[in-house]
Amino acid sequence: PVLVVDFGAQYAQLIARRVREAGVYSEIVPHTMAVERVLEKDPAAIILSGGPSSVYAEDAPGVDPALFTAGVPVLGICYGFQAMASALGGTVARTGDREYGATVVELRGSGSLLEGTPERQQVWMSHGDAVQEAPEGFEVLATSPGAPVAAFEDRGRRLFGVQWHPEVKHSDFGQAALERFLYDGAGLQPTWTAGNVIAEQVAAIRAQVGDARVICGLSGGVDSSVAAALVQKAVGDQLTCVFVDHGLLRAGEAEQVEQDFVAATGVNLKVVDATEQFLSALAGVTDPEAKRKIIGREFIRTFEAAAREIVEEAGQDEEVRFLVQGTLYPDVVESGGGEGAANIKSHHNVGGLPEDLQFELVEPLRTLFKDEVRAVGLELGVPEGIVWRQPFPGPGLGIRIVGAVDADRLAVLRAADAIAREELTAAGLDRDIWQCPVVLLADVRSVGVQGDGRTYGHPIVLRPVSSEDAMTADWSRLPYEVLARISSRITNEVPEVNRVVLDVTSKPPGTIEWE
Ligand code: XMP
């Protein structure tokens, strides 16, 4: 792999993604990992990420110079560039000229890293210190007003560095520089494709599972669907997927999984209709946390019962030994980098599975980013409607009704939600927004007028948001015409609703969901 050494501040994940976009497999390792251990991983190349520190601060993470004599090509970025310069005998100093944001650099020299890109180009800078003098043997490739040495290389030793952030889109030729490093500097080929990922994972799943039985909780979301499709491709009928219809789904969701997904993948599917069980457990409950706990608990019960049934149907001697989870690489990185004790925090992916289920986990997406999961899904023939689905919470519409949940209220919300989704899709906005919860304020009524009569109905809230990762979000500035169409259709077609309102709160302070 190409190893991205993480010096903090969240740059490493983005670098790893860009490397993979260039068709080269990459992994992230913490800067605290000893050089010997880094080299044990047999890296094809190493990239040192940016970070928040100043290289001459007392507790600044340094780089062991041994890293540069192992014969592995290295690219230093921002902090990594300065740490590299300083480890190899160059000078780094505070210039007083902080550069932050879009900056123009001028190329010079005849080096290979920036070959084929313009003499003057815009890059994204974020630094207070700068490399004043390159270490011996290095050629200076670029300068900027705040950075006399803004890029350098020692082609003989295959060591390269840039002060700017090539991984961000604001650096106009950033991806080009990364690709020059990977293909030319390190001599790598772009072989990391969805097809290769599938072949590798299929082999790995077969090796792990043998001829044992496997189950997978299917939510209809992207991750569990693609994970299931991969395992199905690897071990076929040994896999049974369990889809729990808790009655809190949106219009068409159960059908999408039951028909489209099965038709596309040929997976064994066990659909459990647990609507009555969930609705009676939820009857009269208005507190959001209480709702979430009840839904989680009922989900576990239903899933366990389904697993028992699968075992019985398969014959007494067989046990289900493996459970498929759609854990993604960012989950792994965020829970400790996949180094040492694997801290699995992925239960939410499958809708709240029990912590104490005695299964071994199969996690075929553990090395993948979301966009790679989508590419793999498309390659496996998972329907586009599922591959491009926006996030939907495990507790479903149960936490989008403010007030008690019952079948009638669910029907009202389901109708309003279907209209909103239809119109957003028709306007081509699905990929612009992160998701758009539609919320029924079931305990609120307001006066309206329709035809000649007074109405006393419920408001529907539209909550369209844009986000990178759901940790923070902003409300989406949807076109007024689209909002108008959604509003007029909902109030016309759903008799219980006489008012549509727009949530214009960012996260924080609001969360994306209302409960
Ligand atoms: P909040 O409301 O916390 O939501 O801003 C952040 C993201 O998580 C989704 N969400 C959930 N997903 N189980 C899930 O699988 C849950 O219990 C759950 N609650 C919120 C939400 O839709 C948003 O994408």
TrEMBL record:
Active site: C78 (nucleophile), H165, E167
This protein's UniProt keywords: ATP-binding, Glutamine amidotransferase, GMP biosynthesis, Ligase, Nucleotide-binding, Purine biosynthesis
Gene3D superfamilies associated with the record: 3.30.300.10, 3.40.50.880, HUPs (3.40.50.620)
Catalytic activity: XMP + L-glutamine + ATP + H2O = GMP + L-glutamate + AMP + diphosphate + 2 H(+)
CDD domains with a match to the protein in the record: GATase1_GMP_Synthase, GMP_synthase_C
Pfam families: GATase, GMP_synt_C, NAD_synthase
Domain GMPS ATP-PPase: 192-389
Pathway: Purine metabolism; GMP biosynthesis; GMP from XMP (L-Gln route): step 1/1
Residues annotated as binding ATP: S219, G220, G221, V222, D223, S224, S225
EC number(s) on file: 6.3.5.2
NCBIfam families named among the record's database cross-references: guaA_Cterm, guaA_Nterm, PRK00074.1
HAMAP family: GMP_synthase
The name this protein goes by in its record: GMP synthase [glutamine-hydrolyzing]
Organism, scientific name: Georgenia satyanarayanai
Gene (UniProt): guaA
